[in-house]
Design goal:
The complex is a heterodimer of chains A (289) and B (162).
Chain A: E1 2-4, H1 9-18, E2 23-25, H2 31-36, E3 44-47, E4 57-60, E5 63-67, H3 72-79, H4 84-91, H5 96-101, H6 104-110, H7 117-123, E6 127-132, E7 135-140, H8 141-144, E8 145-147, E9 150-151, E10 158-164, E11 171-176, E12 187-194, E13 199-205, H9 215-225, H10 237-249, H11 261-285
Parallel strand pairs in A: 1-3, 2-3
Antiparallel strand pairs in A: 4-5, 5-10, 6-7, 6-10, 8-9, 11-12, 12-13
Helix pairs in contact in A: 3-4, 4-7, 9-10, 10-11
Chain B: E1 3-7, E2 10-14, H1 23-30, E3 49-52, E4 55-58, E5 71-73, H2 86-94, H3 103-119, H4 126-132, H5 144-161
Parallel strand pairs in B: 1-5
Antiparallel strand pairs in B: 1-2, 3-4, 3-5
The chains are: A alpha+beta (289), B alpha+beta (162).
The complex binds flavin-adenine dinucleotide (FAD) and FE2/S2 (inorganic) cluster (FES) (2 copies).
């Protein structure tokens, strides 16, 4: 095995292009488990932790541009106000030690259907900025997940950053697991109210081959709420219930050791109903900005 | 490959490190520092917790080369020749050590928590302790004595800081 440690983004992209069989490593919380258990034996490890650009976030054209290598612990402490949904999701990940190392870039590249960043990024309409020696492109996160642990990332590309518009309204994240720490989600749900556009964004985790949006629920919510954004009126209970049901219909879960498909569908409908209720209550009490 | 890093304040250099090796393996098998324990090698148990540039991490998930030039702090760096570290003494006094396998990781995680809390002006509350130690598993004590030890350490460390 070889170990490459580029210190600039250009060097990293060059290395990625020259060594298509290299495995990139950031926080190592997925990669090292694979190596420790003999499941992963790449000829080359491409360490991204020395690339300064990846470890930073900035505000760019109104978006937060979150470097792929910023660990969850910093998303929580530094971006809790700007990216509330992603910060809520980050708080549920692993343990303090895992959050000190694990990154959103690593979560995206692993593209596990259970990855906790995904529902929050879907609900917030994030974009993934990827790059190679050929250039840079932005992929709407909705198009990023292409299959179980598969993504739209090309073999010669690396993830540079995630771009997220700071929210115009409240966001929520819910996750079901056996304890509060150190659990892979049995099911997860992210929600973002976009009052500026009259849209409700959703993201489902651990309940389909890929993270996905609940499109029918989003359309239903947009219609039902169209008269309410302005008045900040009460959310009819029946609307929240129906929203939950529609979110559940977007799932295509399986039975596995963590839970049955039926449980996941039920849990999703409950999480979605509550998330919309909580977010709407917050929206009603928030001052108009 | 060759790896150079600072461990507990002393520069260490080791050769013939395999590139896929973890920092935990390097510490235990190449540097003669077996304090950090290997229980799961998958980030679940926290018994391998060390400081990496001042941040607690699972050393089993850090690739050796990622520690190049960095500062590592392990349980071996806590006591002086004269005395145990207050966190270590508190674990002993509170009866928070049974088989001791989880202890090195818990000591590092506790030291980090108490140091941060006191710097912010208050000893950690129960909920904070539970949250901060959520990544450290103990199969013996049932955690109650560990909570006692953390509070005892916080009390003693805030008194000695006065
Ligand atoms: C004990 C434990 C608990 C966990 N709990 C959770 C949890 O609750 N929720 C959850 O979602 N995940 C969890 N995980 C999984 C893991 O922590 C996350 O997926 C994390 O986001 C991975 O980030 P990383 O930086 O550590 O990735 P790495 O392990 O360094 O890399 C992961 C993958 O991403 C690739 N990669 C990394 N950075 C880039 C980049 N910039 N460009 C292209 N490819 C890149 C790597 O090649 C690799 O394929 C847990 C893991 C452990 C060990
Ligand atoms: S050995 Fe590293 S977390 Fe268990
Ligand atoms: S004392 Fe035995 S595992 Fe904690």
């Amino acid at each position: 095995m070889r170990f490459l440690q580029p210190t600039t983004w250009a060097e990293a992209l060059e290395a990625r292009a020259t060594h298509p069989d290299a495995v990139a490593i950031a926080g190592g919380t997925d990669v090292m488990v694979g190596i420790n258990f003999g499941r992963l034996r790449p000829p080359l490890l491409l360490d991204l932790t020395r690339v300064g650009e990846l470890q930073e976030w900035s505000v760019d054209g109104g978006d937060v541009r979150l470097g792929a290598g910023v660990p969850y612990a910093r998303v929580i402490t530094e971006l809790g106000d700007r990216l509330p949904g992603l910060a809520m999701a980050s708080r549920t990940i692993g343990s303090p030690q895992i959050r000190n190392r694990g990154t959103v870039g690593g979560n995206l590249a692993t593209a596990s259907p259970a990855g906790d960043a995904h529902p929050a990024l879907l609900a917030a309409d994030a974009e993934v900025e990827v790059a190679s020696v050929r250039g840079t492109r932005r992929i709407p996160v909705t198009d990023f997940y292409t299959g179980v642990k598969r993504s739209a990332l090309a073999p010669d590309e690396l993830i540079a950053a995630v771009r997220i518009r700071p929210p115009a309204g409240p966001q929520q994240y819910s996750k079901i697991g056996t304890r509060n720490a150190m659990v892979i989600a049995v099911a997860a749900f992210g929600l973002a109210l976009h009052p500026d556009r009259g849209v409700v964004g959703t993201g489902i985790g651990s309940a389909a081959p890929t993270p996905r949006r609940a499109t029918a629920a989003e359309e239903f919510a947009a219609e039902e709420l169209s008269g309410l954004w302005e008045s900040r009126g009460e959310l009819p209970a029946a609307t929240a219930v129906r929203f939950g049901e529609l979110v559940a219909t977007a799932a295509a879960p399986i039975d596995d050791v963590r839970g049955t498909a039926a449980y996941r569908v039920h849990a999703l409908s409950v999480m979605a109903r509550r998330a919309l209720t909580w977010a709407w209550a917050e929206y009603r009490t928030a001052k108009e900005s | 490959m060759r790896l150079t890093c600072t461990v507990n304040g002393t520069e260490q250099q080791v050769d013939d490190v395999w590139e896929g090796e973890s920092l935990l393996y390097v510490l235990r098998e190449r540097m003669g520092l077996p304090g950090s324990k290997n229980a799961c090698e998958q980030g679940e148990c926290g018994s391998c917790t060390v400081y990496l540039d001042g941040t607690p991490v699972c050393s089993c998930l850090v690739a050796a080369g990622q520690a190049e030039g960095r500062e590592v702090g392990t349980v071996e760096g806590m006591a002086t020749d004269e005395a145990l570290h207050p966190v270590q003494q508190a674990f002993l006094d509170a009866g928070a050590v049974q088989c001791g396998f989880c202890t090195p990781g818990l000591l590092v995680a506790t030291d980090d928590l108490v140091t941060r809390s006191l710097a912010a002006g208050a000893p950690p509350e129960d909920a904070e302790i539970r949250e901060a130690l959520a990544g450290n598993l103990c199969r013996c004590t049932g955690y109650e004595k560990i909570l006692d030890a953390v509070k005892l350490a916080a009390t003693r460390m805030s008194e000695s800081a006065r």
